[in-house]
């Protein structure tokens, strides 16, 4: 049976006490907040439901993400932001042994997270190569990263997104940079972001949830919903972003609940 609002509400919402929320396509699109975004955050606060704003985008620090949200009228705190950069930093902290170095192809959010993990950033060589979205990446940066990988450096990617949406259309994302290095070296990275489950596992732990009482709210079947399905987490698909109702008929990983928008979700949750 495909999920519908009426079928899934008693199953999912009545038990959900923690929520992981994707950003683009759920709370905003581009630089515009989606209807009900700030009201939904206030709704969760009133109900005492801890949440994390979970994003594959590794380019921003938590503070920069808060500023971005504030600029479009959505109030959040730095501790409520959980990006693939933060998850990458946690992964590295758990795997770093002694004083080690890392090359980073990535922007401020990823560089900060890698430094906080205890690794020292270097421009060439290094024990690790860590790759995320980098809109200023050059051929020379990729060449130095490839040489480090050929020399035995460990390889981590913040997320596998092959493209990145902009006002001009789709442009290369972190996955495109990873693909260049994989093609060059034959090395496969450990990937942290959705649809790989580690990002969700770490975000759930960060807000105190368990698989019994946590759900993932997202707009993409291939990342948000797929990541939740991989770890047995309840999932809610919202139809304000990428995936559509017609996509539901073709997916092998259906969500537990489908809603048209945030207002419909708030109404259903209040009833549940």
Record field, number of beta strands: 15
What is the CATH superfamily of the largest domain? HAD superfamily/HAD-like
**Spatial extent as radius of gyration:** 19 Å
Strand order of the largest sheet: 5-4-1-13-14-15
How much β-strand is present in the residues?
Answer: 15-25%
Uncertain stretches:
none
User: If you average the pLDDT, what whole number results?
Assistant: 92
Largest sheet: 6 strands, parallel
Q: CATH architecture of the largest domain, please?
A: 3-Layer(aba) Sandwich
Which word captures the global form? globular
Q: How far is the N terminus from the C terminus?
A: 21 Å
Number of domains: 2
The CATH class of the largest domain is Alpha Beta
Give the helix level as a range of percent: 25-40%
Q: Order of helices and strands, N to C? A: HEEEHEHEHEHEEHEEEHEHEHEHEH
Q: What is the fold-level CATH name, i.e. the topology of the largest domain? A: Rossmann fold
**Global structural class:** alpha/beta
């Amino acid at each position: 049976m495909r999920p519908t609002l009426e079928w899934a509400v008693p199953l999912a919402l009545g038990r959900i006490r923690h929520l992981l929320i994707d950003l683009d396509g759920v709370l905003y699109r581009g630089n515009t907040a989606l209807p009900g975004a700030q009201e939904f955050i206030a709704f969760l606060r009133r109900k005492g439901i801890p949440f994390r704003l979970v994003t594959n985008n590794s380019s921003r620090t938590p503070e920069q993400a808060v500023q971005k949200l504030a600029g479009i009228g959505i109030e959040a705190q730095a501790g409520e932001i959980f990006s693939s950069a933060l998850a990458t930093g946690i992964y590295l902290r758990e795997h770093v042994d002694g004083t080690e170095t890392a090359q980073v192809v990535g922007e401020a959010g990823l560089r900060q997270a890698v430094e906080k993990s205890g690794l020292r950033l270097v421009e060439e060589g290094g024990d690790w190569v860590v790759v995320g979205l980098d809109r200023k990446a050059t051929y020379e940066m990729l060449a130095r990263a490839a040489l480090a990988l050929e020399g035995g450096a460990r390889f981590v990617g913040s997320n596998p997104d092959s493209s990145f949406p902009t006002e001009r259309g789709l442009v290369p994302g972190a996955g495109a940079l990873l693909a260049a290095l994989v093609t060059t070296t034959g090395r496969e990275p450990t990937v942290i972001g959705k649809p790989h489950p580690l990002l969700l596992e770490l975000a759930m732990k960060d807000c105190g949830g368990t698989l019994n009482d946590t759900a993932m709210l997202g707009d993409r079947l291939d990342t948000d919903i797929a990541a939740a399905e991989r770890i047995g987490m309840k999932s809610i698909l919202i139809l304000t972003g990428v995936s559509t109702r017609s996509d539901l008929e073709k997916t092998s990983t259906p969500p537990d609940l489908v809603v048209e928008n945030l207002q419909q979700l708030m109404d259903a949750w209040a009833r549940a």
